[in-house]
């Protein structure tokens, strides 16, 4: 009677651990167990002893379980009573499930419920390695998705500028250009044959435009906000293409006007400081 | 030069002032919208009724408890209505403060434009300002002068740009 109870307890424990393995395999995307793969299950009864303390020192062997092994419905795999030194208690079973120690147990290939168990395989499982498998699988999936779409896998050069950095650079260059203009004009020389502070500014803006059109195409400039005028034009029935051209021109004008303000302001400051 | 700096600081102050409308409104509301004696009495009455209610057991004297609760609810409703009225007045005040800031800004600028219409803020060699000399000299019209109108535009543009950069 007690043997029967022990066997039933063992069967219950086995079923619980099998389900845990099945859940893990579902996460890993492994297929279900088939009967033919039961034959690949290893048999090593003497090495099994989940209750012994030396199990912690055992070498962790990761053998990828076959689908047959991982099915929760593979009732052929049952632990053998003779493989265990003592009958495991339900408490130790649950503790084993919660730890990351290698869980070693044997199963049977005969009928799902029977009092007699036959050793026919050995199965090692380590949840830490399973977690590593999950990450590896995810990485594999990502790499697969990338290889499947070659058009999207083009390596783009990292953009060294973003809109904010470009904005700051513009301000700094305006200030430096105004300092340069003020220094040169104070010496009595004319810039570009004419003593005008606006020509260096014009040259600077032309250089910026050339730079934006050639090297900094990827950097999207700071978008100017839509104004009431553009909203009114849209309501008047202006074409979207024309609105786009209008927005582009107005944004250019706004940026040039803003740059000119910075340039002139800094010129006046440098003039006050240097004179 | 002093005038140029003064006008720049003025523009800077008026650019930042709308951010502090809430605080200004609170300060003004504390002075204007004080709590009346009627409301204070109402609050004291509610407090007394709640104290009396806390001394009564709801199971032993339910009728009296319910009567007190009805009184408390009625007074709370009156207090809430008065509170809503005050909140509405504060929101109107906030709008008025915002509009007032802009009107004050415009009035000061117009006053300065009228006073400094023919006085330049600074001078630069006129050949340096070629070909935009007349635009820079607005509204003075003098050659090589930097006018108030042009300087106000420049100051506003610089402040706006710098605020956009630093996220202020």
Automatic annotation (TrEMBL), chain A:
Regions crossing the membrane: 184-210, 250-273
GO annotation terms (biological process): tail-anchored membrane protein insertion into ER membrane
InterPro entries, A to Z: CAMLG
One Gene Ontology term, aspect cellular component: GET complex
Compositional bias ranges of the Basic and acidic residues kind: 1-10
Species of the source: Elysia crispata
Polar residues composition-biased segments: 82-97
Descriptive protein name: Calcium signal-modulating cyclophilin ligand
Sorted UniProt keywords: Membrane, Transmembrane, Transmembrane helix
Region annotation (Disordered) ranges: 1-117, 133-158
Entries under PANTHER family matching the protein: CALCIUM-SIGNAL MODULATING CYCLOPHILIN LIGAND CAML, GUIDED ENTRY OF TAIL-ANCHORED PROTEINS FACTOR CAMLG
Pfam families in the record: Get2_like
From TrEMBL, chain B:
Cellular component GO terms held in the UniProt record: endoplasmic reticulum membrane; GET complex
Membrane topology: Multi-pass membrane protein
Transmembrane segments: 92-116, 128-154
GO molecular function, one term: protein-membrane adaptor activity
Record InterPro entries: Get1, Helix_hairpin_bin_sf
Keyword set, alphabetical order: Endoplasmic reticulum, Membrane, Signal, Transmembrane, Transmembrane helix
Family matches, as Gene3D superfamilies: Helix hairpin bin (1.10.287.660)
Residues of the signal peptide: 1-15
Keyword Endoplasmic reticulum attached: yes
One Gene Ontology biological process: tail-anchored membrane protein insertion into ER membrane
Annotated compartments: Endoplasmic reticulum membrane
Family of the protein in this entry: Belongs to the WRB/GET1 family.
Name listed for the protein in its UniProt record: Guided entry of tail-anchored proteins factor 1
Originating species: Elysia crispata (lettuce slug)
């Amino acid at each position: 009677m007690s043997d029967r109870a022990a066997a039933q307890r063992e069967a219950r424990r086995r079923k619980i651990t099998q389900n845990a393995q099945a859940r893990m395999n579902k996460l890993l995307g492994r297929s279900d167990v088939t009967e033919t793969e039961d034959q690949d299950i290893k048999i090593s009864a003497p090495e099994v002893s989940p209750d012994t303390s030396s199990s912690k020192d055992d070498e962790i062997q990761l053998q990828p379980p076959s689908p047959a092994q991982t099915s929760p419905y593979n009732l052929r795999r049952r632990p053998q009573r003779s493989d265990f030194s003592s009958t495991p208690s339900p408490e130790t079973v649950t503790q084993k499930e919660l730890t990351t120690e290698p869980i070693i147990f044997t199963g049977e290939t005969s009928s799902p419920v029977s009092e007699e168990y036959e050793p026919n395989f050995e199965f090692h499982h380590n949840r830490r390695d399973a977690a590593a498998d999950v990450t590896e699988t995810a990485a594999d999936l990502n790499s697969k998705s990338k290889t499947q779409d070659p058009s999207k896998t083009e390596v783009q050069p990292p953009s060294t500028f973003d809109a904010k950095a470009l904005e700051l650079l513009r301000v700094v260059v305006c200030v430096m250009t105004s300092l340069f203009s003020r220094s040169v004009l104070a010496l009595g020389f004319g810039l570009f044959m004419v003593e005008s502070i606006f020509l260096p500014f014009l040259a600077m803006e032309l250089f910026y435009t050339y730079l934006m059109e050639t090297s900094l195409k990827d950097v999207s400039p700071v978008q100017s906000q839509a104004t009431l005028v553009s909203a009114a034009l849209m309501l008047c029935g202006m074409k979207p293409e024309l609105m786009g051209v209008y927005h582009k021109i107005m944004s250019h004008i706004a940026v040039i006007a803003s740059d000119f303000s910075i340039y002139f302001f800094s010129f006046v400051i440098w003039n006050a400081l240097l004179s | 030069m002093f005038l140029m700096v003064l006008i720049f600081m003025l523009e800077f102050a008026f650019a930042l002032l709308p951010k502090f409308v809430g605080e200004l409104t609170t300060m003004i509301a504390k002075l204007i919208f004080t709590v009346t004696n009627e409301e204070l009495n109402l609050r004291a009455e509610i407090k007394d009724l709640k104290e009396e209610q806390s001394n009564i057991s709801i199971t032993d004297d339910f009728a009296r408890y319910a009567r007190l609760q009805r009184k408390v609810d009625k007074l709370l409703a009156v207090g809430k209505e008065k509170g809503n009225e005050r909140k509405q007045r504060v929101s109107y005040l906030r709008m008025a403060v915002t509009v007032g800031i802009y009107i004050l800004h415009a009035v000061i600028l117009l006053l300065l434009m009228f006073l400094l219409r023919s006085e330049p803020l600074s001078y630069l060699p006129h050949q340096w300002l070629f070909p935009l000399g007349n635009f820079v000299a607005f509204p003075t019209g003098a050659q090589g002068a930097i006018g108030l109108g042009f300087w106000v535009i420049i100051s506003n543009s610089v402040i706006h740009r710098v605020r956009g950069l630093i996220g202020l």
